[in-house]
Amino acid sequence: MVKQEDLQTIASSLQSFLEDLHSKYESRGDGTVANYIPELAKVNPDLFSICIATVNGDVYEVGDYNQLFTIQSISKVFVHGLALEDHGRDYLLTRVGVEPTGDAFNAIILDEKSKRPYNPMVNAGAIATTSLIKGSDATERLNRMLDMFEKYTSHNVFVDISVFTSERITGHRNRAMAHLMLNFGMIDQNIEQALDLYFQQCSVMVNCHDLAVMAATLANKGINPMTGKQAVDSRYVKDILSVMYTCGMYNFAGEWAYKVGIPAKSGISGGIIAIVPDVMGIGVFSPPLDSRGNSVRGVKVCEELSQQFGLHLFECWRK
Ligand code: DON
Is residue 52 in contact with ligand 1, taking CB distance under 6 Å? Predict the structure, then answer.
């Protein structure tokens, strides 16, 4: 496992390693761009960027790192943090579990006994988590969520209206999950409002640089290394990272934990964030996905980074 004192050694080779990785994978065309949300199908599959932000605020980046895209499921990590701040760990656990599912992210299932969705990283759990965000009305809830994202990115963020509308029109599975949870009393709020907020959080625009800084904030006990400001209460960072570690890569989470060995989260627009606690945050963006909904290049890049720099949390021998 890499520690903060190893940063200097790593840093000297990081930029050139990222450039090599980028040229190694840029011409590989495996995977398919998500198309079940029509707006997402329009993306250029060749876009590709890798960015690393350290807890000291240094940034290493290559490729299309300024290209904006919708954050999609990566948002679930940060909204989980906000829900923890709003309600605390114990209450949240009564509404959403922390068990990996082994099922697809959009499976319409709840835990049979507790009737809770399995975890906040799959769609059902994320919708339930989002429905808990406090606010007197829809506008206040949306503003609280955008403010939360801005603490991580260090700049204003906005919702892409065409992706939001596209999700809202085609989100029948998500609507089915919300109704199922309403049936079991797992959502109290007006479900259309909860779904709208969920579609809005997925449609927040970020770039790969933002992903790395957001990941570095979680690596830095919830303090944004660029601003020095607390983005999320440090007492919840371990909850956020534990759920990412076991559930963040969906039905690939076990293999990811085995091979890459750090908490991570992917989104169907092609982003991945990965966190090396106390050291750095990694962001990768490349839209073509594998059958589980994870970015093909993103997974490869993280596997190689982990191997090269010994990032696996249970790696006992440093290079
Ligand atoms: O709920 C959905 O379908 C999307 N807005 C988010 C899904 C997503 O990114 C899942 N990740 N692989």
Answer: no
pTM as predicted: 0.96
Please state which CATH number belongs to domain 73-202: 3.40.710.10
Report whether pLDDT(319) > 70: no
User: 76 is written with which tokens?
Assistant: 């679930």
CB distance 69 to ligand 1 below 6 Å: no
Q: 59 forms bridges with which residues in the sheet?
A: 53
Residues of the chain with CATH 3.40.710.10: 4-71+206-309, 73-202
Show the CA angle centred on residue 110, arms to residues 106 and 112, nearest 5°: 150
Would the CB of 117 count as within 6 Å of ligand 1? no
Rounded to 5°, angle at Cα 176 from 270 and 268: 0
* Range 4-71+206-309 classified under CATH 3.40.50.2300: no
Q: Is the pLDDT of residue 318 over 80?
A: no
pLDDT at residue number 68: 98
For residue 20, the model assigns a pLDDT of 97
